[in-house]
Amino acid sequence: SYLYKETWNIGVILLLTVMATAFVGYVLPWGQMSFWGATVITNLLSAIPYIGTTLVEWIWGGFSVDKATLTRFFAFHFILPFIITALVLVHLLFLHETGSNNPSGINPDSDKIPFHPYYTIKDALGFMLMLLILLTLALFSPDMLGDPDNFSPANPLNTPSHIKPEWYFLFA
């Protein structure tokens, strides 16, 4: 709803921060797709008027994507989850203050159910299921979702023929 601007703004910032964390984590293997993904996406920032070029060179740590970029992205990948945690807490604070919006438009107190134990148990089961799936993928098939070109070491002189975003960025 338009009444919950702060909640929406924090939610959008949270989404962008999670996407940034996924992106800098994608660069860390330092394969062909990682290198060229970093080159393409960071070059998009150069379109920002006045500060774009300076911002890109600051992120790169030089005049091109190099080992300094990898070091910076590793630092960003370490720091951003702490920022995400703080943003989640602020988002929950705003949700606690304003309450969630009901899509049906009905808001009688008689139709509400308590958060605990109903949603707590449901969310805990969903969390455990997702954790089990993630651990199964990570332990038994860690390369299943990866791009085969990313197994080649980063080489700025060899551009892959089919650069495409990862599956989790396809909606953007």
Automatic annotation (TrEMBL):
Cofactor dependence: heme b
Membrane topology, record value: Multi-pass membrane protein
GO biological process: mitochondrial electron transport, ubiquinol to cytochrome c
Domain Cytochrome b/b6 N-terminal region profile: 1-104
Domain of life: Eukaryota
GO (cellular component) term, any one: mitochondrial inner membrane
Keyword Cell membrane in record: no
Pfam families in UniProt: Cytochrom_B_C (PF00032), Cytochrome_B (PF00033)
Compartments reported by the entry: Mitochondrion inner membrane
Keywords of the record: Electron transport, Heme, Iron, Membrane, Metal-binding, Mitochondrion, Mitochondrion inner membrane, Respiratory chain, Transmembrane, Transmembrane helix, Transport, Ubiquinone
Segments crossing the lipid bilayer: 7-28, 34-61, 73-94, 124-141
Family: Belongs to the cytochrome b family.
Function: Component of the ubiquinol-cytochrome c reductase complex (complex III or cytochrome b-c1 complex) that is part of the mitochondrial respiratory chain. The b-c1 complex mediates electron transfer from ubiquinol to cytochrome c. Contributes to the generation of a proton gradient across the mitochondrial membrane that is then used for ATP synthesis.
Protein's UniProt name: Cytochrome b
Organism: Osphranter rufus
